Amino acid sequence: MIDWLKLNPSPDRVDLSFDEKAKIAIKEYGGYVYTKEKKVKYPAKQKVKGLLEMPAAINIHTGEIHYWFFDWKNSFVVIECFEDLLRKYPVKEINVIIDCWSAHTSYAIKVWNYFHPRFHLVYTPTKASWMNMIERVFSKLDKDILQNSNFQTVREAMSRISNYFEKELSFRKWSN
User: Fold this and answer.
1) Looking at the predicted structure, is the pLDDT value of residue 141 above 70?
2) For site-directed labelling of 153, which of 15, 30, 54, 134 has its Cα 20 to 30 A away?
3) In this structure, is the dihedral angle defined by the CA atoms of residues 69, 73, 78 and 80, taken in order, positive or negative?
4) Helix H or strand E segment including 65
5) What is the DSSP string of 88-129?
6) C-alpha distances in angstroms, 7 versus 1, 61, 84, 86, 147?
7) Cβ count near 46 (within 10 Å)
């Protein structure tokens, strides 16, 4: 089904890949930070200033990213994200490729999905997260923004991540 969705886009539906980037640690990095100009050394300490959960989805045909910030993650956070997607696509069928994490297969999700017939969950096989395109987005985000970061606050991290998703265009190329 996942391959079929990727190979058969339709104007009547939107196909998304969804998952959560878990426990993004907002911390002082005690090592080297690479910039375009030079390598910079920060003091050798690791002070965690907060944690951030970031559910996200990518449209597998256009590369458009949807993301949210939360302090925790569970089935109800996932449902909140799904509700937002329904508001963003009010007349289209929505297919969401998702992994088999317990919050994605919970009773609350099943009941919610029953009452939203436009919303279709497509589960990846167990231990096949590589089939979910959003994992590639998280990998690139981690490499480009989160590794060696030195955010002073959680809000600064959220702002930097938002800015990254607004300006990073490479995701659009992945879907072509």
Assistant:
1) yes
2) 134
3) negative
4) strand 65-67
5) HSSSSEEEEEE---TTTSSHHHHHHHHT-TTEEEEEPPTT-G
6) 10, 9, 26, 23, 33
7) 10
Q: In percent, how much of the chain has pLDDT > 90?
A: 58
pTM here is 0.85
Question: For residue 119, which amino acid is it?
Answer: F
Residue partners of 30: CB distance under 8 A and separation at least 6: 42, 43, 44, 45, 46
Q: What is the mean pLDDT of residues 104-129?
A: 93
Relative to beta strand 93-98, strand 119-123 is parallel
The C-alpha atoms of residue 7 and residue 15 are separated, in whole angstroms, by 11
| Spatial contact of 24 and 48, defined as CB atoms under 8 Å apart | no
Dump the DSSP string for the chain: -HHHHHH---TTEEEEEEEEEEEEEEEE--SEEE-SS-EEEPPS--EEEEEEEEEEEEETTT--EEE--BSS-SHHHHHHHHHHHHHHSSSSEEEEEE---TTTSSHHHHHHHHT-TTEEEEEPPTT-GGG-THHHHHHHHIIIIITT---SSHHHHHHHHHHHHHH--HHHHHT-
Structure tokens at 124: 């990846």
CA–CA distance, 92 with 89 (Å, rounded to integer): 6
Question: How many CB atoms lie under 10 A from the CB of residue 163?
Answer: 11
